[in-house]
Design brief:
The structure is a single chain. The N terminus is likely disordered. About 15% of the residues lie in helices and about 35% in strands. It is globular and about 55 Å long. The chain has a single domain, classed as Ribosomal Protein L25, Chain P, CATH 2.40.240. The protein is built from 1 helix and 5 strands. The chain is of the alpha+beta class.
């Protein structure tokens, strides 16, 4: 988690509050899972349900930090942790246990 990193990017000016939930799929890029306006209650509920489904499926969620000059993101564990101004939440699988030990 990269919380606490200082970025000097100015806040983005945006009149809509649309957020996209994306899943990274190797070899295919980003797949849109859900998209909606968090200021519209029905759409926010749909986003929250989609967010929970991904976490229940074992995925991790991260919010990209824009304007830092590098590809960085902050891990989030609930929809409430997603900043209201976020444009994307990216889901990706947790890492597997690694290579088996020799002789196994």
């Amino acid at each position: 988690m990269l919380r606490g990193l200082a970025c000097s990017a100015p806040p983005s000016v945006c009149h809509n509050r649309s957020v996209r939930l994306l899943r990274l799929k190797p070899g295919h890029g980003e797949i849109v899972l859900a998209e909606g306006d968090v200021s519209v209650p029905e759409q926010e509920r749909a986003l929250i349900e989609a967010f929970k489904r991904e976490l229940d499926a074992g995925m991790w969620a991260a919010v990209p930090l824009d304007g830092c000059g590098r590809r960085q993101a902050e891990l989030v564990k609930s929809f409430e942790e997603v900043p209201r101004e976020a444009e994307r939440v990216i889901f990706f699988p947790r890492a597997a246990g690694g290579a088996p030990l020799r002789g196994e």
